[in-house]
Amino acid sequence: MPSSIFIAPSRNRLIVLALLTISILPLTSPAWGQPIPVRSTSDTTSKPDFQYKVVGSSNTGPYTYAPETWGDLRINLVNARSESREVLCTTYFDQDPSLQYGRQVWLPKQSILRTSHPILVPKCDPAPGRNLNLRSLILDASESNEVMIRNESGQRFHDAAILVAQAGRNTAVFGDSAIASTEPGNEIADLIVAGRVGQQLTNRFTILNDPFLPADESVLKTFDHLILADGRITDDFAATTALRAWLHAGGNLWVMLDQVDPVVLKRLLGDDFSGHVVDRVGLTSVRIDKASALTDTEMTEAETVDYDDPVDLVRIVNPSFTASYSVNGWPVAMTKACGDGKLLLTTLGARAWVRPRPESMEQPTDPLKTSNVIAASPLTTIARDFFSPRNPPLLPLNTIEPQVREYIGYTIPSWGAIVGTLLGFSLCILALGTWLNLSGRLEHVSWMGSILAIIVSAGLIMIGRTSRQAIPPTLASVQFIQGIRGTDEIRTEGLLSIFQPEGSQATIEVTNGGRMIPDMTGLEGTSRRMITTDLGTCHWENLPQAAGLRSTSFTQSQTVIDRLQAHATFNSNGVVGKYSGQLPVGSDAILATRNGRMGVALKADGTFIGRAEDIFERDQFLSAGLLSDEQNRRRRTLESLLTNPKRKDYPDRPQLMFWSEPWDNGFRFGEGLARRGTSLVALPLVLERPASGTEIFIPSPFLNYFNRRNPDGSLPSTMWDATRNEWQERSTPGLSWLNFMIPRELLPLTLRRARIDLKVAGPVGRVEIFGLKDGSVISLKTVMDPVGSLSIEISDADSLTLDDEGRLSLGLSAGDPNRPELTHSAADQNRTDEQRLAPTQINQSAKVNYWRIESLALQLWASTAKTPLTD
């Protein structure tokens, strides 16, 4: 009998290794990864010479599939023959046997292959414990006709089942199987369960402890939260790439640095990680303080906890994160926005984030809501943000579908054809008149000219009708391309529309990764297969393309040869920078931030500049005054993206955006298709510090602001809501002190002067701006009865001082307490605010007028100090 071996010939070794990394379901048996005895064809036992097994049936425990989400079906293949074999494995769900997913693989002789293929879980009832039955067929791909390979019992079908979890707010942990223990003392599990239960979620989570981690981001989309609690991913570059793409696509990732090698941050974030670890210490006394850099509107007394067994603390310096909590001045909980997702980094051991459950506290009756410990106050705050639902899409497909469809339609006759026809008609009339005049029959020019005009008109009508009816087979797309800062990777999502006038039998293929399901309306009952042949490569069988217009969405992550990036700095005129990358320079470029937008002049060599006069109004999205049809389509898309009411958080950092030609994503629908469309490219702007002593101008979009406590220690009014990024409507006076954040890359700075641009609506009555000078509050400017837009110049440099965090504090008082009649009638003036708001106290005769700060923008003129801020 031959020895037990895994065989991978050299020409296929890389392919096989790549396939092995796609697994998503955890394996808990130590037998996995060990050689499996393979019987030779000469063996006389009843064992077949080919075996097939679906791994991940309902008895494996963890939930790893969700309705209407991609997943990986993991399979094991054993070829006991003394010759190689090529097989096609296909699987379908009971709900729709006509829609199959499969993989074509080649197995060497007497070998074992563990591989997988993607499946799209159908819509179903996601009740806990719900099994989805599936059935597999194994076909001999070497045969011209489809010959089925029977299973061990002689049956043609291989049955299995998978467990389906609730869709949304699912959590998975990269860690060993010990984390799955529910016994007290399992620190990592206790921390995760306490965080989830504290947010009214179940105590269930998935352990990803397979030796081969997922190498495709789409199969990770089952999870909204991933936690790195061991270092296996450190040297797994394929899994790191998949995890990075999943993070930037909207996932929440928690890296426990006390459990993970810090090098994983560098490999995950690339050049965007600039911190370094100082050391690792043990603490017997821990007090978790709220980091002062976060906000000073909340001040809480932290609790000190003593430990007999020291708690680990990894001390890290300037990791380009925003610290939320610290211990002894060292950050222990930090967050960083990464594309559409968020990265949470903790450096303190798990025990410090939880507290023992008091004996007087009863466990919930629901076993899915129990926990061994309870979350400490800092963990409750962290968990509220981390275990949140996935963000809605930045660019909903229904907003770009009209733009895609507009690229498919009739063509307008060319200017040359129309002018040439009319010019020919004029020449014919001239020649006809000349000939009739010379022959003495000029009186016939009227009826002959009319006939000629009718002929020309008929020709023009035929040209127009032909142009309207001659719509060629077309592939149109609108793509949103986002560069992943610090790496050579991009994320692309969008919509494809395919027009086939008479249908087509061309094979639909995916050649460069990504996920795309063709529109199969009307093809129900027809046997269709998605066959995966390699990592990121698949095609559809038995799927004809119906006549007419079909649309489909897609997502894709890929590595580019020439990194897409944009660098910028500041000078006395504004922002200057340079774009470089694989995509050609486009048009209609803008700089977009959460606080505003400005147009930039993007040249063919990639250089760009944005000046003070290029700052946009609130409802402006393009620099052009008179928009073409294409620019109007672009304006609608930008408006939908940048004013999405469900995504007030975007963009989290300055972005260079421009429109370029469509990116070739490797989706193939046949030959001869006319390609039309456009790509919106969004690149995080890498800010660089100008030379020391440089005079610079900082435009308002780069100066974000949030509330701070008033200098006397009182809380600010609710005029400005930083969470919703909008000013609130009011009828009573209010005072808000704001911290304006200077880009960290520019610090330290010496501020010279400032200008505040305000736009007000309603009877505000009075506006006053305050500053801090030598620690004292001073009035900088007062405007009575402001109307519409106003600009306030601040030339007192001593009142424009920055604190240690690079924040400029200014106060805004709005409303006139001495003239309540501006907003309240006489019947309403003598009542308190509580009485005015109480439904039972409403006075129908009282009239209330409201006012509002519609917008506030600050612009700064400064010079860079000689000593830059060091890490």
Number of continuous helical runs: 11
Q: Mean pLDDT score, rounded?
A: 83
> Which geometry do the CA atoms define?
flat
Flag low-confidence runs: 1-46, 57-63, 839-845
Q: Structural class of the secondary structure composition? A: alpha+beta
- Residues in β-strands, percent: 35-45%
Number of strands: 47
* N- and C-termini, Cα separation: 64 Å
Helix content: 10-25%
Question: Which radius of gyration do the C-alpha atoms yield?
Answer: 33 Å
Major sheet size, sense and barrel closure: 12 strands, mixed
What does this structure look like?
The protein has 871 residues and is of the alpha+beta class. It is 15% helix and 36% strand. The chain contains eleven helices and 47 strands. Strands 21, 22, 24, 27, 28, 29, 30, 31, 32, 33, 34 and 36 form a twelve-stranded mixed β-sheet that branches. Strands 3, 4, 6, 7, 8, 23, 25, 26 and 35 form a nine-stranded mixed β-sheet that branches. A hairpin with a 2-residue loop joins strand 25 (528-534) and strand 26 (537-541). Helix 7 runs antiparallel to helix 8. The longest helix is centred in the middle third of the chain and has 25 residues, at 445-469. The two termini are 64 Å apart. 38% of the residues are buried. Residues 1-46, 57-63 and 839-845 have low confidence and may be disordered.
